[in-house]
Known about the structure:
The structure is a single chain. This protein is of the alpha/beta class and about 350 residues long. The protein has two domains: about 5-130 and about 310-330, NAD(P)-binding Rossmann-like Domain (Rossmann fold); about 135-305 and about 340-360, Dihydrodipicolinate Reductase, domain 2. Helices cover about 35% and strands about 25% of the residues. The strands form two sheets. Strands 7, 8, 9, 10, 11, 12, 13, 14, 15 and 16 form a ten-stranded mixed beta sheet that branches. The protein has a six-stranded parallel beta sheet with strand order 3-2-1-4-5-6, with helices on both faces. A hairpin with a 4-residue loop joins strand 10 and strand 11. The chain is globular, with a radius of gyration of 21 Å. The model has no long low-confidence stretch (mean pLDDT about 95).
Amino acid sequence: MADEKxxxxxxxxxCAEIARKVCRAITLSPNSTVYAISSRTIEKAKQFATNNNxxxxxxxxxxxxxxxxxxxVDAVYVPLPTSLHLKWAVMAANxxxxxxxxxxxxxxxxxxxxxxxxxxxxxxxxxxxxxxYHHPRTARxxxxxxxxxxxxxxxxxxxxxxFLPPPEFFENNIRTKADLDSLGALGDAGWYCIGAILWxxxxxxxxxxxxxxxxxxxxxxxxxxxxxxxxxEQEGTTATFYCSFLSHETMDVSVLGSKGSFHVEDLIIPYExxxxxxxxTSCASFADLHLxxxxxxxxxxxxxELPQEALMIQEFSRLVQEIKDSTITPDRRWGGISRASQVVxxxxxxSVDNGFKTVYL
Length: 361
């Protein structure tokens, strides 16, 4: 068991549904602990603690400010509506709290830049809550992707993230409200697609971004569904993605190279907590008379001891602890990853808002 003094103490700002999952992850991670819970009312914070079986030692606050003023809180997890991210992430950084910020990180890259600047100037770690980056499957897929003999050069990428919620979602959920989460399906589901595509391209921004006219908005003007095309001029690489609140559950990414290809069906949330597959083919050709293939697609199962969200917390907490021990400075790579996704998301939004014109980056 870890020494209590070496555990990173988390304060959670808000009791959103995703906070339940991250709260569990903090508990499962060997180097962190839930220290404080807050909501806009202390009654709601108490109910959250009860519903999630948190120990009585967890501090309960009826305001977010109290968490930021608590000297024992090392880091904060912020699952608030996107419209509130700028205010509370900057306040947290200015209070020297490390920031784990739910995605999408901000309403636009200008806001995110303010958040990153506050984190950098105060020497605190920033990371967004995209959990799939931290699954060991992701590292294994990257090894295959980077192998010039097995995969070759990236030629095209496809990703989708979609789900069909019940009718009350469209009436009550913050992701359908222009004043709370105006990015809608683009910010929620599309963030993952953009991240997966950029990951495949080592975070090089595309030359052009074009949203397709099939985009659907609700009566509040919030995007419920869209399809987008990217193009990298120097590489001649293309990518498309589909994100939606209007179709069946998908969490796919497929990457086609000059010598191989791979795909994943459960990128964002693996089918199982302790193991996740990906499928690849390399150096395939058709058999004689095109009656079959020279090689069959192979499945690779990647096992993990902790759920991917706990692995995210573990990595974030490792960075925080080493910063506290003055052995490292904050890892700016995570902010760079988030910023690349935000820049592309902004370009998609601009294309949609300007009659689906192509945006050049």
